[in-house]
Every structure is written in C-alpha cells, then in structure tokens.
Amino acid sequence: MTSKATNRIVHPTGEIALIALIREHTRARAGTRSSRHLRLGIGDDCAILTPPRGHELLVTTDFSLETRHFRRSSGDAWHSPQSIGHRTLARGLSDIAAMGGKPLAAFLSLALPKSIARKPIWLNGFFDGLLTLAAAYNTPLAGGDTSESPSDHILADVLLLGSAPKGRALRRSTAKPGDTLYVTGSLGGAATELSTLSTKTKRPPSLFPISYSLLPASPHLFPQPRLAVGQALLRRRLATACIDISDGLSTDLAHLCEESRVAARIHTDALPLHPLTRSLTPAAALHAALHGGEDYELLFTADSATRVPRSIAGVRITPIGTIVTRHQSRHQVTLVEANGHPTELLPQGWQHLS
Amino acid sequence: MTSKATNRIVHPTGEIALIALIREHTRARAGTRSSRHLRLGIGDDCAILTPPRGHELLVTTDFSLETRHFRRSSGDAWHSPQSIGHRTLARGLSDIAAMGGKPLAAFLSLALPKSIARKPIWLNGFFDGLLTLAAAYNTPLAGGDTSESPSDHILADVLLLGSAPKGRALRRSTAKPGDTLYVTGSLGGAATELSTLSTKTKRPPSLFPISYSLLPASPHLFPQPRLAVGQALLRRRLATACIDISDGLSTDLAHLCEESRVAARIHTDALPLHPLTRSLTPAAALHAALHGGEDYELLFTADSATRVPRSIAGVRITPIGTIVTRHQSRHQVTLVEANGHPTELLPQGWQHLS
C-alpha cells in the first residue's frame, strides 16, 4: 500500500480494488486508519511516523503462509478468513507485548492467488478479522505491499512497529539467577484446539459474532496478545526479562535461558493448563502445555523480592519455577515432576525448515 | 530473525543454520550488522531502534516473489542469486530515496523451498548480493522472519526503515502547476535488459566481479537506488515533489499527478534514453522509456525559478516537461511528440493482480 501498492490508476480490478477494499475497511473501524503518530499512511512511496518523544522503536515482522501457518477453511474445518486475518496480526502484536511496548502501526504485505483476489467474501472476512483485532489495540494499518501469489497459496507478512520508553523495553536476555519464572494465562489451549480443527464439522454461526475476537475459548483461532500485561510489567518495573510463548514453553524458555546465559527449573504441578486440555489424557495435556506452540502467553522473570500480583489486567499470573545459574544445573531447563523427580526438558516446540 | 527466527537452539539444520549464515555474512561486511541507531538487532522478540533526533520515520515494505518479481537462473539465463538479493533490497531503498530519506535498517522475511534451504551456494550468492548493496548504503540487516516456503517458490518481503528531518520528507502529492518535471539518470534500460534475459546464454564470469553492484550497465539485474540524489534534493530544498520510477514513467507520473491533483506535459525529445535502448527500434526504445518498469530513477518536480543542476551526486538530471493545472489540459498526462503533436499518455506500466 505504500509504494508499489498505492493508487493503481489503470485497471478497475486487481490491486486498486484491493486497496479500495482495505480503505473501506479501515474507514469503518476507529483507530485502524490513523493515529497521532502516523503522519502519512497509505498513498506515497513510504509511510511517515513520529514515534512518541523519549521512546524507542520496536520492530518485528512475521510471515503467515498458507499450509505453514494456517489452512484455508473447507467445509468450515480449519481456519476461517476471520481467523486467518486475526492470527496474521496477532503474531506481531504478541512480539510487541513481549517487549512491554505499545503498537504504533502495522504494515501488511499480502500476495493472493487469482482465485481469492476476486472473492470479496474471503477478503472481507480476512480484513474483518485483522482490523477488528487492530482496532482493539488502536493499531492503524499504515501500508504494505500487494502482489499476485506465484502459487495457489495465500502469503502474508506483517510488520508491527511499536514503542517503549527509551532503554526500558523488556528483553529475553536479562533474567538473573534467583528470579522467579511466571507465565500469563494458561498453556496448551492453542495446541489442543488445533488438534481438533482437522476433524471439525460445520461450526454453529453463533460462535462467530461481531465480538468473536474477544472470546477466550478459541486460543488457536483467535489468540489474544497480552499487550496490557506486557505494558504493566514494564510500567510497574515488575519483570527482569520477558519473551512470548509462540513456539511452545519448552522452546521459548530455552531461548530465554540461552540469551540470558542462565538455566531454569520448572514444576509440572505449577503449570496452568488451559481448560480445553481437560479433553486430553494427563500426559497429552502436559505435552500440549510444554511443547504446544502459539499460546501467545508471556513468559517472564521477576526478582524473588518483587511482589508480583496474581492477576494483571484481568489475566492470571502463575509462578512456574525459578532461574538458576548454569553451573548449578546439569540441564539448561529442568522439569521437576509431581513426585519431585527432576528430568531434562528439551525444546520440542515449533522449528521451521528442519 | 527477530522473534520467531532467533537463535533456534534445537536443530543444527534449517532455520538456525540460516540465521548463522546471515550472521556470518553481516559480520563480514562493515555497516550491515549494526549502527548507532540500531540498539538491538537479531536476537529478541523485536529489534530496537532510535531514529535520529528531530527526524521522522519512513517505512516501506516490498515483496520479491519468484515468478512475479524474478526468475531463478537456469543455465545463467534470468536472475543470479546475487541479482535476486540485490533487487530484493533495491526496491525498498528506492522508496526511501524517493522521500529524500536515509536508510536506518532493513528487515528480511524469507521463505525458502526445501531444495534451496540446503543449497549454500544459492544462499551465499543471495546474501552476497543483498548485503553488498546494504553495505554500500550503511543499512544494517536488523531482523526479519524465516519459514519454509509452501511451494517451490522463493518468497521474500523486505521492510526498509529510513528517516528524514521532521516535516521535510519529499512527497508525491505536492507538485504545483508551473513546476518543471525532471528525471534522474536514464530511462528504458531495465526493460531493455529484461527483454534480453530469457535468451541469454552463459555470462562471462568477468561481468560479475566483487564490485558488480556498482556496474551501471546492468539496470535491471543491479539497479542503483538514487539515495544520494534524493537526499540532496531534500537537503538543498530543490524539489517540490518526488516519486521513484518503479512501475514505469507513464504509471508513476500518473500517480504523481493524481496525488498532487495536477496534470503534466512531457516531451518525447527530452527523454534521456538508456544506452541499452540503442539496440531497439526508436519506437521500442520510446516504449521502454515510457512504460518499462523498474528503472528505479527518481521523477521530481521543482519550482520553475529553482536552478536545478545538470547533475547531482554524479547522476545526470534531465528536465522532461512541466506541471499544468487540471483544467489547462484535456489529459492527465500529455506527451508532446517530436513534431509538436500532443497525444494522451495513458499509464501502461506495471500493475499487479490485473
């Protein structure tokens, strides 16, 4: 939409029609078209932004590629266009949340197969999902790019810009031995829901009212990025380090330990399991909580002397373990089972290209 | 590389190997790994940047999708990995140039088919092309995302962040009737070179030495974004409006007229044809100059009283016409032929999804 994607003048179909559709959708939703930090949105070679004074800029980009990150719905199994739009934006918002930041603007690069580019129902659903979430967090859609997809796959890449007070963004590299480990919300819900999607038959329409994105019951289809929690952790100086759990607890905790050069011990008993995991065997529920990706909760550390509330911005906060020095521990991450038996927890979450 | 793509710990192949390769390449080239404005690069949920004080932020994203924007070389016809890497970054740099900005950082989202992900020769060539150009303009590669491609196509999306003094970025919407129209460099070279690529046989290796990206003779394979010219236009307050010619003169001049609510007259005789077009018939050369995309020159306007030099930063500057009011002109863009005959110039440049 910036640059190549702006104001195609030639043809009434194709890219111009798509841009017009996006403009219509952003016009219809407060907060998705402009903000005081966005000086120039869709319509020039670049968008122009002025980050808040005294803040630094946070930048993250995330692919959402058909078959890799979602499957187009067929007979209402898999992902509805609303879910795809929502998830496409949620990934980046969760990265901003993990730094304790506020979103400034989103940019969408979208390549569509011809079959989809002419399907207003799909496109309207996609932008409905994406912009309903954007509106909930006052994130204007400020530009991007469009293209025809080289294959029959929908390809999206979302750039999220955010801001945090200078020098205060939460990082994953600053956990200290002795810190307590916490997670927000609950774990394993997204993986559990995902496992049911392929077998799902037609959903009742009442499941997707206007406010679908606020339903807590759909952790995979409509994950809620923990922006308010991240911002509170930063503002109230509660956290020493933070990362989002997008790749699964085992993998993201390993990232945090690696970057902070520490080790960690977590307790099976302490893990807050998502209610959806009750449909699974206890072992499967534990596996989903430890290794299931895309819960988009925050994993953070706090000094053991810090009084961390049990809930922040309405989201439950659960202590699940402690940070130890590397030489105190045989393993990078140790899982202490209910019977007190310690085992090594190897990262088994999401890994692309492997 | 920010977020999902950072520091995969698990497997020695796949995404970690790719990130390691990128780190190796950026380490080898001054200016592509860090800068004083990049506080945190590859390795956390987000990258952190501090734009220069008193400046505003420029943002642009550009897809580079196999078959839509390039074709993988086969038998040395089409695009070498170096050219693909160079072009992937050049598109965004040209957008920054068109605003008169300085690049701050680039972010690369890259999805590779399995066959390519395991091919160090291709990957090394790609990053060589991309980072040689990045180094030439002191643009650190600060993050991005990686994934396996859902098809056999290479998919890239590049985000460029830049900066310009507050309120002074050049726009396409500010041309005034009476202004003179100028282009940088020459036109039609990229289209002419592109038309020869499909028939090309093995290139002599001497065509691609270390400094390949500085060769002016390869306007399609190794386009040179006009950053120094754009920055001079802004700094010396020469231009009233500016756009890059990525979609072809006829299309981008129509964009400029549309956004500025003006009309334009340009003169066939005045168009600076690229030397490569000499291999074409005069009519084909003119067609390439008017409608051939991807020249990545700048099209700008200046007040008629402004003395615009004949060359800026070593690049030729050519007056090609004038801006007029909409009611002075029957057409949005009028082409005045050598014999003085005026005709309507319709945008016939690049248009996706049509």
Q: Would you give the CATH topology of the largest domain in chain A?
A: 60s Ribosomal Protein L30, Chain: A
How would you describe the shape of chain A?
globular
By DSSP (H or I, 4+ residues per run), the number of helices of chain A equals: 8
Oligomer: homodimer
Rounded mean pLDDT score of chain A: 86
- Number of strand segments of chain A: 14
Instruction: Give the CATH H-level superfamily of the largest domain in chain A.
Output: PurM-like, N-terminal domain
The arrangement of helices and strands of chain A along the chain is HEEEHEHHEEEHHEHEHEEEEE
CATH class of the largest domain in chain A, named Alpha Beta
Distance between the termini of chain A: 33 Å
Which protein chains are joined by the largest interface, and how many residues does each one contribute? A-B, 91 and 93 residues
The portion of residues forming beta strands of chain A comes to 15-25%
Main sheet record of chain A: 8 strands, mixed
Structural class of chain A: alpha+beta
Question: From the coordinates shown, what is the CATH architecture of the largest domain in chain A?
Answer: 2-Layer Sandwich
The helix fraction of chain A, in percent, is 25-40%
In the residues of chain A, how many domains can be counted? 2
If you compute it from the alpha carbons, what radius of gyration of chain A comes out, rounded to the nearest whole angstrom? Answer: 21 Å
Contiguous runs where pLDDT drops below 50 for at least 5 residues of chain A: 1-13, 202-215
